[in-house]
TrEMBL record:
Pfam families: Aminotran_5 (PF00266)
Name the UniProt record assigns to this protein: Aminotransferase class V-fold PLP-dependent enzyme
GO molecular function: transaminase activity
Database matches in InterPro entries: Aminotrans_V_dom, Aminotrans_V_PyrdxlP_BS, PyrdxlP-dep_Trfase, PyrdxlP-dep_Trfase_major, PyrdxlP-dep_Trfase_small
Protein family (similarity comment): Belongs to the class-V pyridoxal-phosphate-dependent aminotransferase family.
Occurrences of domain Aminotransferase class V (ranges): 25-388
Source taxonomy: Bacteria, Pseudomonadati, Bacteroidota, Sphingobacteriia, Sphingobacteriales
Length: 397
């Protein structure tokens, strides 16, 4: 398969996404436009359920539902029994994080890009269990200082928790390099890959993480209210369980119970089967295209957008680092990010506001408030980038 998505393929992919005919969508880091097949998969299931009953429909679709786990395992190169389907990345991250047996004085090492929900988790652990956390900042060029990161590890370091691709910046964290450090020192490694899945190839074996939380709605193009959690088989028994029901257990007696012997112990029984089927179809769609090809296309479009924004007077692009992703952040002189977003929305162009609180440590360090965020996906086009830049020129003038 050719690594470059051809114009014919892009047009076909756009034809398979109803939303591209109506909207120029540059808010893929918030929630991508889903492929038609994902929407149809969900609605077909719900229609069948309405006619035949919930339990009966689940039984009819049992093989397709089970295949969702196999597809996710293929996407991240894990075992199927290391995958739990959950409602979102925050649920997955908190299940993993709070499953760790923290003791007073334990240390966590994180990065300046950590997402707000995760930062709240770190602060909660500090207040509740007396756990300390260290933040390793990027250098002045936006590069991640691996030597400083490793030097920060001490005898009480219990966990490394980092976000691969931040919510409010175009930079990335070298997760494979961090994984090597984690394995070298035998430290648990929790990765937030919320913006990564469907955006960049992910291989948990290569990354070396013990746990990874992912959402469905962003670059995977799955429905909202979907996500998954990867937990390496060897550590599943080491994590405490917080939600338990008859599904999460392997057997129950009147006096005891035993958890399941796979990652589905971190799920609960009652959740949307239609959405589970939808996330599976979205993963299958990405696999059929090839995530390496998706990543190549995203890098090209993001680079083109940054190049064009950089020459528009009054616009400052904020992304820096040795590797940049599909998120492009910028400010327009004299305008709030919300105003820029709203004015573009009037022209049927979707962008988002990267809120300062979303990556508070990074934003405070770089003296940034809320900024505009445009995030490209493979179904975006060069023409849409031209339209966006033209609209920004009009707004500025």
């Amino acid at each position: 398969m050719n690594n470059i998505l051809t114009n014919e393929e892009i047009q076909q992919l756009r034809a398979e996404t109803r939303g591209t005919a109506k909207t120029i969508h540059f808010n893929n880091a918030g929630s991508s436009l889903p492929p038609d097949v994902v929407v149809d998969t969900i609605t077909d299931y719900l229609h069948y359920e309405a006619l035949n009953g919930g339990y009966e429909t689940e039984y009819t679709y049992r093989e397709e539902l089970e295949n969702t786990y196999s597809l996710i395992a293929r996407l991240i190169n894990s075992r199927k029994d290391e995958v739990a389907v959950v409602e979102n990345a925050s649920i997955g991250w908190w299940l993993a994080f709070n499953g760790i047996d923290f003791k007073p004085g334990d240390e966590i090492i994180t990065c300046e890009m950590e997402y707000v929900s995760n930062l709240i988790g770190l602060l909660h652990a500090q207040k509740t269990w007396g756990v300390e956390f260290k933040v390793i900042p990027n250098d002045k060029n936006g590069y991640f200082p691996s030597d400083q990161f490793e030097a920060a590890i001490g005898p009480k370091t219990k966990l490394i928790a980092v976000t691969h691709i931040p919510s409010s910046a175009g930079g990335m964290i070298p997760v494979i390099e961090i994984g090597k450090i984690a394995r070298k020192h035998n430290i648990l490694y929790l990765l937030d890959a919320c913006q990564s899945a469907g955006h960049i190839p992910l291989d948990v074996q290569q990354i070396g993480c013990d746990m990874m939380a992912v959402t469905g709605r962003k670059y995977l193009r799955a429905p909202r209210g979907t996500g998954f959690l990867y937990v390496r088989k060897e550590i599943q028994d080491k994590l405490k369980l917080f939600f338990m029901d008859g599904f999460t257990t392997q057997w129950v007696t009147e006096t005891d119970f035993k958890p399941r012997d796979d990652a589905r112990r971190f799920e609960v029984y009652e959740k949307s089967r239609a959405l589970t089927l939808g996330v599976g179809k979205a993963v299958e769609y990405a696999l059929n295209i090839g995530v390496d090809r998706i990543w190549q296309r995203i890098q090209y479009l993001a680079g083109l957008l940054r190049e064009k924004l950089n020459v528009i007077a009054g616009i400052t692009v904020h992304d820096f680092g040795d590797q940049l992703c599909g998120i492009v952040t910028f400010s327009v002189e004299g305008m709030t990010a919300a105003d820029v977003k709203n004015k573009l929305a009037e022209k049927h162009i979707n962008i988002s506001v990267a809120k300062a609180v979303s990556t508070l440590i990074y934003m405070n360090k770089n003296h940034l408030g809320d900024i505009a965020r445009s995030s490209v996906h493979y179904y975006n086009t060069e023409e849409e980038i031209e339209i966006l830049c033209g609209a920004l020129r009009e707004i500025i003038n």
